[in-house]
Structures are given as structure tokens and as C-alpha cells.
Write a structure and sequence with these properties.
The complex is a heterodimer of chains A (246) and B (363).
Chain A: E1 3-14, E2 17-28, E3 32-36, H1 43-50, E4 58-63, E5 66-67, H2 73-81, E6 83-86, H3 98-109, H4 114-127, H5 144-155, E7 162-166, H6 174-191, E8 194-198, H7 202-208, E9 211-216, E10 219-224, H8 235-245
Parallel strand pairs in A: 3-8, 3-9, 6-7, 7-8
Antiparallel strand pairs in A: 1-2, 1-4, 4-5, 9-10
Helix pairs in contact in A: 3-4, 3-5, 4-5, 6-7
Chain B: E1 6-13, E2 16-25, H1 30-37, E3 45-54, H2 56-65, E4 71-73, H3 77-86, H4 102-136, H5 143-153, H6 158-183, H7 188-227, H8 230-236, H9 241-280, H10 284-294, H11 297-323, H12 330-361
Parallel strand pairs in B: 2-3, 3-4
Antiparallel strand pairs in B: 1-2
Classes of the chains: A alpha/beta (246), B alpha/beta (363).
Amino acid sequence: MKKVITVKDLKTIYGDKVVHDGLNLSINEGEIYGLLGPSGCGKTTLLRKMVMLEEVGSGHIDILGYNIGNISQKDSQKLRENWGVLFQFGALFSSLTLAQNVARPLVEYTNLSKDMIDEIVKFKLHIVGLKQSDANLFPSQISGGMKKKAALARALAMDPKLLFLDEPTSGLDPISAREFDKLILKLRELFNLTIVMVSHDMKSIKDTLDRFAIIDNKKIIYEGSLEGITKIKSDFVDKFFKEENE
Amino acid sequence: MNEKKCLCKLAIKDGKTTLYIKGSLTIHNITTCKNEIGSYNDIAVINLQDVEAIDSAGALFIKTLSTNDTTFLISKDEISQTLNLVRVDFKDDISFIDKKTFLEKIGIWANKKYIFLTQILNFIGILFIKKISLFFNLRNFRYKEILYEINQSGIKAMGIVALTSFLVGAVVAYQSAMQLKLYGANIFIVDMLGISILRELAPMITAIVIAGRSGSSYTAEIGAMKITEELDAMRTMGFDPYFYLVIPRIIALIISLPILIFVADISGIFGGMLVSNSELDISFTLFMDRFVEVVDIKHFTIGEIKGPFFAFLITTISIYRGFMVKDDTQSIGKNTTKSVVESIFAVIMCDALFSVIFTNLGL
């Protein structure tokens, strides 16, 4: 299997607080990969480093063959067109309607005609489960669940190979959360996406993830699928996984 | 509230110090209880058999009284559970009050200022690099946003700028009319108003109004976008916030501030003209004739030249402040205040600098 992302010896230090002390992980093409761990363990920091919002610092992160610690302006722009990011609260541009939000990357990066862009926007809104009548609403007029769906549609606008999700089901009611899980699985099937997500939602972890890494105490204590987890001894794993099975 | 009382008794039984507590031991009555006990040596036995209820504060109070060798007499299960709950060792014994010495405080303050200075230099540095690359890549030039911003911060501000300048012109004319009348030097009001308004007052008033009006809105807008992660979303999509948000605003204000200064010139002089007419009997025609005669064009040009500089200062400071907003809502307010104060200060500094330069150049 082809590796899409590899992280090697990643260290993160804020002031005198060590967040990561030598992280190693690799994510294969076409898999749904989770980053788990107790709160404050630096999952989101790792995700932010992967999407180049924060400096890599010490260590290496390779994404789609580019070493993002040492990347030219041009390559980084190319990379950004090849991934989509879904933020925890959607982060839709508040001055644009949903349709304009989804259309934005297409307008900027492609020379498609307006009609074609409209078609693509309609399709993307449809696959994430939004009604066409919602397209002209502004982000302030819709619910949290719809915001996430719309933000997902925007992340998918350029047909990326790679999708980063920051807590996709947090803040959703259980029904919407399960729908969102199904949506993620469906999207993977449709577009052969590689998906990296940070999640706390046990149900979503069980249903969607192929493999995951658990970060605890500055290091990765486990990387693999749900089956192998019982062998691991750690407070977090005991509390998080085993109580669930009781 | 119907508070249940508690009764504490310290006694020595069989040579052992024994504390007997009766009633309910809660957050409301532990202080009374403590006073009742008074001073004590090591308490060997704590008798809680007659205690009806205990809360976590009460349990912590018991914990402070007991030592490792203390024996507890407990009848109820809940009580022992509550006691066990608080029997955790707080591993790192951190005191909450962080006392800093005077020197430390100075150091922290100086370090903060130093970091602020380096950060704003960094910001301006990035800005110039982006600006230079902008000229090689005109596709990135955001005409629509620039026009929108000119409308927002230029056209819509005309009314307030004109009104403020009109009033200042009238006030200055009023005050000087009294003095000039004394010497019979009525006509010199034209020279005075012409030079002071065109050179100094109009640009300053415009810049201050715009710093309060547009500067604060830039900070708040960009700060809010930072909190909602919109800026991060833009970055991950490869939309450089500098191109989309910063440069259009800077260019828009650089274009619109000189126009606003022109408007302020006109209305300021007009205000002065009205007052000269009513107070000093200088007719409009006479005023204009004298104005053309004595007020050189250079005064107008100098006032206009200041415009783009003021615009640059106001936008860079207010946008920089917007970027500095942290992930909490309070910091929007804090940074907006700072942005207005700092940009007005910077404008006045810059104006003083211009005065020195122009005087030395003999202009």
C-alpha cells in the first residue's frame, strides 16, 4: 500500500512544555485514520502541523511525497489544492452564502465557466446531504450540523485526495453524528479519499476508522486497528475503550 | 436557609485526643466548627458516628485535621466514601498565587514590548514581500474587494469627515476672530485658516476619524475571522489572507484617504468662511480673492501627501491587531482598543515627523 502521510520523529515544544516527543506514524492511501488521545495531548496540534498551519519544527512530515518542513511556495500551493480541511465549527466564510463558499476554491483555482461551477456546487451540496434551497443561505442562518455539511462540501470542492477532519461529529446530535459517519464512509467509497480525523466519539471511532494512533504522554502508544487495542496498558486506553465493552 | 448545626467537641479520652462531631458538616458551618475546636495538638481519634451528612468541603476539613495515624469512627457508608474521595495526594504542590518580584515584573513587561516590536516588524516585512510579488502577478490584484473597501471606508465616511472638519474650521475661525479684531488684522484670518486647515488640521482630523471608524472595524472583522477559524480555513485552501484581506484594505485606504482629506479641506475652509463673514464682515468674494492670493498650492499638496502615509499606518496597525486576537472574545475588545489608540498615536507621531522634515526643507 502506498503511504500518503508519514510523520517521523516529530517534536513539539511550547515554551518549556513538551507536547510531542518523537512521534512516528504513517497513513496509507484510501484509509480512514484517526488521531485519538486524552484532551490536551496535542492531536489538534499534530493535525494543524500536517495542514501547514503551524511550523513543523523538529522532525519530518511527508505528505503526498512533499516534505512540508522544507517546501517551496509553489509546491505548498499545489498541495493545498489537493486536500480539504474540515474545521471543528465549519469555519465557513461568514460573508458568503453556502453556494459561494463551496464555489470559492473553484473560482480561484480553475478556469471553469460559471455554469459549470454552479453544477459542481449543486452536486457537492447534494452529496453531503444539503437541500438545493439551502444554497443561498448565509452561515449565520443555519444550524451547526448544516454548517459542518456545508464545510465538508467546501472541503470537497476541488475533489481532493486527502481530507482532514477536526472532530467531525462533535456538537452534533447522535442522529446527525451517525449520518455524518455514514457520509464519511460513502465519500471514501465514492472518491477513494484518504481521511485523517481527530475524534472523541466512540461510536464514530468504531464505525468509521480503519486504523488509528493514540497519543498519550507525548508519544504514540498505539498505532493500528481496533482489534489490537486490548493488549495495550494505559490509563487512557483502559478508560476509553474497556469501559465501553463492560 | 435552614442550616443544620454541627457540634464539635475536643476531649481527651484514655490519654488520646478525640474529636467528636455531631450534626452535618458542610461548607456553611466548617468555619464555626473550626472556631469551636480552637487550638489542638495531633488528633488521634475522630468520631464521626453521629454525623448525618458531610460534603466535600467538610471532608477536606476533616482531612486537614487528621494525620496518617488518626483513627476514624464512622457509621455511615456515604461519609467514608466522601472522605475517600478527597483523600487524593495533589501531586504537584502548586500555590495559586504567583508572586513576582518587582524586577521580574519589569522583565516580563519589557519582554512583552520587545516581542510586540519584533512581531510588528515581522508583519510589515511579510507585507512588503507580498506587495512586491503582487506587482509581478497582477492576476492576484483584487479589484472588486478594493472597490468595495473604498466604498466602505472612503465614500461612506465622507459625511462624518466633512462635518467634523466643518466644525473645527468654524471653531478655529471663531477663536482667532476675537484676537484678530483687537489688532484690526481681520483679513489675516484667511491666511491663518488657509494654511492651518490645508496643511495640518484637515489631514489630522481625517486620519483620526478614519482610525476610529475604519481601523476599529478592520481589527474587529479580522479578529472575529480568526476566532471562527476562517483565517485558518483560508490558509489551508491556499488563499493567502494577506492577498485577500490585508492588501485590498491597505490599497483602498491609500486611495480614499487623500480624497477624504480634500473633502475635509473644502468643508473646513467653508466653515471658517461662514464665521469670518458673520464675525469679521469679510465677504465670500473677498475671502476667496485673498485665499487665492496668499495660500500657496504647496500647502494643499503637503496635506495630501500625508494622506497615503497615514492610511498605511492606520491599516497596518489595525490589521496587525486583528491578527493578534487570541481564541477568546475578550481579546477582540482589547485589541480593538489598542488598535485605535496605537494608530492615532502613530498618525500624530508621523505628522510631527513631517512637520520637522518640511520645516527643514524650507517648505
